Amino acid sequence: xxxxxxxxxxxxxxxxxxxxxxxxxxxxxxxxxxxxxxxxxxxxxxxxxxxxxxxxxxxxxxxxxxxxxxxxxxxxxxxxxxxxxxxxxxxxx
Amino acid sequence: xxxxxxxxxxxxxxxxxxxxxxxxxxxxxxxxxxxxxxxxxxxxxxxxxxxxxxxxxxxxxxxxxxxxxxxxxxxxxxxxxxxxxxxxxxxxxxxxxxxxxxxxxxxxxxxxxxxxxxxxxxxxxxxxxxxxxxxxx
Lengths: 93, 137
Hints:
Chain A has 93 residues and is of the alpha+beta class. Helices cover 30% and strands 18% of the residues of chain A. Chain A has helices spanning 19-34, 53-64, and strands at residues 2-6, 73-80, 86-89. The two termini of chain A are 21 Å apart. Chain B has 4 helices and 5 strands; from the N terminus they run βαβαβααββ. A 5-stranded mixed beta sheet of chain B has the order 3-1-2-4-5. The longest helix of chain B is centred in the middle third of the chain and has 16 residues, at 66-81.
């Protein structure tokens, strides 16, 4: 999974968002819920949905996006299912 | 002996599995296998590399016809394991923990009878891009 955020670098830090903190947030909100789990059975935000990569990327967006501190914006989620199959999602705005 | 050449065929399959020892309780299984022991299984994109070593045939120039090798790997391995739950859907892992170690040995044993005796066979299996194994060594 590739997470792209966008925004203006903070004048004091030069960061859009501390990449270490972003990594921690992704682990906490997404990886902990998905890794080594059965998407059909174990994952609350996929309940009642078909576990296509399309639905999964949209589900992950909904899990992650609310936790990014403004003005940081989630720009793109890229999810790689196999070496030849991947999706990109840019939100529904 | 100087003419030996190694040829490789790369294939791909996805399987679900769960690592656990039926003789142990859940606590012990979680302690040893961690998340890999979770009861509802998890999946891997396995990359399989089949290596054949031999001297090219004088008439064909082939160590082995790669199309035939490809068909063989698809028939014997990919058909058997692709999109399957290794623990539930395969005979080979009904009573054998489907670790990458055991999978690589099983794949070797399944292919070996179909490769000419004078050729050497070696299997490399990637369970993840960073975790991979070879058999035999």
